[in-house]
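Sequence, structure tokens reproduced for absentees:
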Amino acid sequence: MADSKSHKSVPGLQQLGGGTDFKKDVAAMLKGTQMFADFFQDENEVIAQYMHAYGAPKGVIIFREGERTGHLCLLVEGRLELYKDDDQGGQKKLVEIRAGKSIGEMSVLDGLPYSATGITAIPSKLLLLTRGNLNSIIDEHPRLAAKVLWKIGNLLSLRLRQTTGKLIDFL
């Protein structure tokens, strides 16, 4: 089943709750996200067993461009900002992520480094799904894993279409 260790690779996160009763709360949090809103309650209860819930004050780096921590982040409350390193050693803000959205899908799938840096813009609550826990879902609940992977693929496809549209407007 899910690993129970805290997510030590992200300094500044404070683990929220624990135990069976709290996993029901996590399932409810999942229902409020774009990725899992259309999943059945029993499916979200299974997925909740593999999630880690955290609170984070403003300014916590959830992941850094170039790192390989390999987790998908679902923002339950708050706001995140994504930054991309530039050629002058600075960072350019790409986008703000609002509650209900996810980030880090590519890294959790392919294990490659993050392509941007994600930082909490205000105090936030988030759920993390590690690459290891995604692999556990695949092994232990293959039908549900197919649904999760399908949803991740759809979200990535939508983002690619949006990015392509912006690129065309830019050119």
In short: The chain has five helices and nine strands.
